[in-house]
Amino acid sequence: MKLTELTLTQLRDGLRQGSITSVEATQAMLARIVDVDNDIRSYLTITDEMALEQAASADARRAQGEDTPLLGVPIAVKDIIATQGVPTTAGSKILDGFIPPYDAFVVDQLKAAGAVILGKTNTDEFAMGSSTENSAFVTTSNPWDTERVPGGSSGGSAAAVAARLAFAALGTDTGGSVRQPASFCGVVGLRPTYGRMSRWGVVAFASSLDQVGPFGRTVADCTALFQATAGYDRRDSTSLDVPVPDFEAVLTGDIRGLRVGVPKEYFISGIEPEVEAAVRAAIAQMEQLGAEIVEISLPHTRYALPVYYLIAPAEASANLARYDGIRYGPRVDGENMIESVKRTRSLFGPEVKRRIMLGTYALSTGYYDEYYGRALKVRTLIKQDFVEAFKQVDIIATPTSPTTAFKIGDRADDPLGMYLADIFTLSLNLSAGCGLSLPCGFDSQGLPIGLQLIGDTLQEAKILNAAHAYEQSTAWHQQLPLTGAS
Amino acid sequence: MTEYEAVIGLEIHAELMTASKMFCGCRVVDSVTAPPNTATCPVCLGMPGMLPVINKRAVELAIRVGLALNCTIQRHNIFARKNYFYPDLPKSYQISQYELPLALDGHLDIELASGETKRIDIRRVHLEEDTGKLTHLDKDSQFPQGGTLVDYNRSGVPLLEIVSEPNIRSGEEARAYAVKIRQILRYLEVNSGDMEKGVFRVEPNISLRPAGTETFGTRTELKNLNSFRALADGTAYELVRQAEILDAGGQVVQETRGWNESKRLTFSQRSKEEAEDYRYFPEPDLPPLEITDEWVESVKLTLPELPDTKRARYMADFELSAYDASVLVEERAVANWFEHTLAVSDVDPAPSPKSIANWMINDLFRLMNEHKQGVADIKFEPAAFVQLIGLVENNTVNNNTAKDVLTEMYQSGRPAAEIIQAKGLAQISDETAIFEIISQVIRENPDTVAAYLSGKDKLRGWFVGQVMKATKGKANPEIVNRRLAEQLDQLK
Lengths: 486, 492
Ligand SMILES: [Zn+2]
Prior knowledge:
The structure holds 2 protein chains of 2 kinds.
Chain A: H1 8-17, H2 22-40, E1 43-46, H3 48-63, E2 74-78, H4 105-112, E3 116-121, H5 155-162, E4 168-172, H6 179-185, E5 188-191, E6 212-216, H7 219-229, E7 259-263, H8 273-288, E8 292-296, H9 304-319, H10 337-345, H11 350-363, H12 369-392, E9 395-399, H13 415-419, H14 426-430, E10 434-442, E11 448-455, H15 460-472
Parallel strand pairs in A: 2-3, 2-4, 7-8, 7-9
Antiparallel strand pairs in A: 1-3, 4-6, 5-6, 5-10, 9-11, 10-11
Chain B: E1 4-15, H1 56-68, E2 72-73, E3 76-77, E4 79-83, E5 93-97, E6 103-111, E7 117-129, E8 133-137, E9 147-151, E10 158-164, H2 171-187, E11 200-210, E12 220-223, H3 228-247, E13 255-260, E14 265-271, E15 281-282, E16 289-290, H4 293-302, H5 307-318, H6 322-329, H7 332-342, H8 353-370, H9 382-393, H10 399-412, H11 416-423, H12 431-444, H13 446-453, H14 460-470, H15 477-490
Parallel strand pairs in B: 12-13
Antiparallel strand pairs in B: 1-10, 1-11, 2-6, 3-16, 4-5, 4-15, 6-7, 7-10, 8-9, 11-12, 13-14
Helix pairs in contact in B: 1-4, 2-3, 5-6, 7-9, 9-10, 12-14, 12-15, 14-15
The structure holds zinc ion (ZN).
Zinc ion binds next to loops of chain B.
């Protein structure tokens, strides 16, 4: 087996046994990136020199008898997460060339865990999108069909993991931006409970919804990266000061007696029949494994999309107001300051401009109560749906996205159609729960289908173990896209 | 002519004297003297992905102010984003409080020139962050293009906004209210009150309505007032300006106006059409700030005695006049100094508080004024001051000598006894010595003695003067007077 085809956990075993060095693994990944990323375009920046230094240092530390959770493991990081001394663009021209003087908390954690950082992956501009087509720099291709999108906004990270261009990767999930691309690319992606991951150093899109999440080729890989990066950070006031359990230890594969809720509102018209069939089959498989399937209702589900598209743009309109070219980032000069700021802000792409306008409008005097204020109230109802549901069940199973990966350009001019790609993932961001997506089959065109498992607040262990149990009883995760196999 | 009633509300912004900024760890520095942009970090520069953390100390100081202004402290606090674009505001929003501010419904009693007391209601007190500072450049050799410089040292400094109800009725009332707020903030040691440096800023909103009506007229807001004088004069000017417009049948334009100190008039800065919609919404980066009863109670314990209470106590306990008591309580440091003198126990007989107060107000303050110094600059301890007064009261020195000794103490910081010893200033109370000196004066001035004896009683004072001159002012005046009367009368 090629080095690059190892899972993260297999690589880690090899590094621990001394059969592989981090430098070898890193060189293999960097070589593969050079070989095939022209087709996938998952990376915006490749930090090869830094990666090789980190790899050499990891090998040296291991030679001294040290071991840390990700010592020597090459990882990719979404380009919306700040990396000290390395460009961080958020997929936007307005941050083109911006080099932060700080690391995000999760990057600190990666470094502390001994990880090797391969580079920064593509994203829809400021994480606004579901396909990476809104990236100001490049559209990433889906490794299963390069004419199709990888999903988004963390499409670069999902594609990199699927195409074996990183052993795992970090993304961010504001409305489904980890789970939906995980589903489209056939990998595992976790959106942890809000507050489980520090947002320090994560370029803000919608502060009350943003959360960092890990991608892996398997549930165990995803869990390993989650374990290493989760935790309380006093610099993020919304970070939860709770202990991080040993998640890797809870992957027992035993889900007997686990109550799995299936919400009727998630099997709607518009869902592709092959997606519904695969998800129902996966739920049946979980029943086979000893889970108890319970039909439940999340009655306010249909309001999630409008609520999300009021709250997220409203917060974004304020979060993105700072990009004026005065202190950092590119500046387009004008004859006076106001003109200069206007021109600089013209560097935002159309989707970002659209959301800034939507959000500004929703917060304006005279409209606040009708739009933003009401959205906050309905958000409470959506949260309450989950509180009620988790009185009956341990986890909830749904499709991750109503469709498999669509073609590049298909929805580019159809913002509403694009918004529907996240229809099953948005509710979770509005609630206080956690969720993941994992592969549960392929459609007739060979495109991956994702199963979403949703857990209650801080109950990542339950969904990770359920996902692991299901994964171990199937072979979906063992199928790899043919990227670069010529 | 219609008679108008002035409707004035005050917004006061006061920076809090915390060691670090409101939402980051940066030091709070003097925004005038510190080199620009030396107390900044990615948080207060609004860099991508940076997050605020509430400075607990700032909250504590704000609670202190809320309590001192008789407000209700809100237990559930929400921070909000106030959105507007300006280059001195790095995030393009200010973290402030909107719907649920820290303190509500307070009041403050002010004394009017008439001697009456008036209660000004306080609507709210809330916490926010200050902005950076802009310097607009003239085109010169260094900056041929002109331009604007930004200093973010002040960005993120904790700022308290104190909003009064509009029940202020004149420029003088506005000034009395602002002066008292400043005094209280200084007492609470939360703000230095330095208006020149802009750490204490007062912005009145002003309108007129026909006397006896309850509706509100169109209001203007005044900015750039960097002294209490400017506040009183600018407000008075604005009231006259508005009255003239209304009398002429015109309408006041709702706008922000500036005060031009040299031309002594207000001018339009920004009209309402340009006024911004701040689009307030709850700050998602900060969870609600819950203030517990225990926290409020513990802050209550740190509150010092406030000037009104202190003044009443001085008047009742020490029989000080209202004026003297006011002077002593004006600044907390002065009152503290005064109270330290009262704690001095090793001077016998102990001077009365009233006597100490007199010496402070009449003599010590004169020296401080002459040297343009404050109580912190005094080189001697309160105990040394009491010792000097004790030396007067036990007749070691007389009053006039004591004043000279005090001047010397003020300059050198040396103890009174030492100065008196070194300069031989001790009062002469020896009856025999004084008898000898008087006898000598009588011997040497037979003509004046004759004139006195012929009935010119007023010459008695001249003899006293001669004796004092002969003793370099050290003779005990009481003994001189008595002995002189006796000795002159014997000659009759
Ligand atoms: Zn700072």
